[in-house]
Design brief:
The protein is mostly helical and 326 residues long. It is built from 15 helices and five strands.
């Protein structure tokens, strides 16, 4: 019987994404240890807890704490105290008293991506001449990270979960990635993501160059590299992508402090919108199910006007990218 229970627990744990599990555990510890609450709890306790931290924590953080409490009660067969009207009313009051402007990472424009890749390619050439294999590896990896992240509109956690086994690239044709789950894939049915080969800033070429120089045949696509050029067996953690990206962009002479891992995704979304993609095509390509989520990523189109024509020289039409990526 205990073996069956252990198997059931394993599958139940797998139903919640790893990052979500960690944040839920931290939220429950805050409620029980820091605040001194008890589980199971009541609506009145939830209301007092929220009121206690309303002026200290962001509303998004408070909602995440509620989600953790709701998950614990539902998973353990107790009534969910967070769904009471009084809790929703309190959240409205907190929003009214403590309004906060939505903070978003700046999009990485295509022109900045072009500058970054040009600088990294120069780094590769110089490092090869000096016999500095660690620098060759880092710059080659970073080119692949930037171009794949941009043209595929991947989140940081999606980039960190790409594997060689589930990536199929054909030079001058395109590249296919398969992810068994993602933030937008609540049913964990998995999805294949396609991106065509491009004449410049090509994600296919960048990927093939990276796995060739790194000698990767299986496992995670993106990994850490130490100062001696040793490649980790473990994938880059999603949270490590922000400092890595900023370090890379700073090396390229770009204003790194403006950007985060979301900047690559926002940059692609804004480029696509300015290049004539309709919102449905953009949502299907990136994997958004909610239009509001998609529109939050799109900057005014005039900021990106004409850049694709400069890169592609007019010989590769915008619609061909959309068609080939389906």
């Amino acid at each position: 019987m205990s073996e069956r229970i252990n198997k059931a627990d394993r599958y139940l744990e797998a139903s919640v994404r790893q990052n979500t599990s960690k944040s839920y555990a931290a939220a429950l510890a805050h409620f029980e240890v820091t605040w001194g609450g008890f589980l199971p709890t009541t609506t009145e306790s939830v209301v007092r807890y929220l009121a206690e931290y309303a002026d200290q924590l962001a509303l998004s953080t408070l909602k995440q704490r509620l989600a953790a409490l709701a998950n614990w009660h539902q998973s353990n067969g107790f009534p969910d105290p967070t769904k009471a009207p009084k809790v929703r009313q309190l959240l409205r009051g907190i929003r009214a008293v403590h309004p906060v402007q939505q903070k978003q990472a700046a999009p990485l424009p295509l022109l900045q991506l072009e500058k970054a890749v040009a600088h990294l390619e120069l780094e590769v050439a110089q490092a090869r001449g000096e016999g500095n294999m660690a620098a060759v590896l880092k710059a080659t990896r970073d080119i692949a990270l930037l171009t794949i992240g941009f043209w595929r509109g991947f989140r940081g956690d999606e980039l960190s979960r790409l594997t060689v086994e589930n990536t199929h690239a054909e030079r001058y044709v395109g590249i296919r990635f398969y992810l068994g789950s993602s933030k937008g894939d609540r049913q964990n049915v998995g999805r294949e993501y396609r991106t065509p080969s491009l004449s410049k800033l090509c994600p296919v070429e960048a990927y093939l160059n990276w796995i060739e120089v790194a000698g990767l045949t299986r496992g995670s696509v993106f990994r850490g590299i130490d100062r001696w050029g040793n490649i980790s067996d473990r994938p880059l953690a999603a949270h490590s992508l922000i400092p890595l990206l900023r370090d890379t962009l700073a090396r390229c002479g770009l204003p790194a402090h403006l950007y985060s891992a979301h900047s690559i995704r926002r940059g692609f979304a804004t480029w696509a919108a300015s290049s004539g993609w309709d919102i449905k095509t953009l949502m299907d390509y990136v994997g958004w199910s909610d239009m509001k989520s998609a529109l939050r990523y799109v900057e005014p189109a005039q900021q990106f006007g004409g850049l694709i024509r400069k890169l592609e020289g007019g010989d590769q039409k915008i619609h061909s990218f959309k068609d080939a990526s389906r």
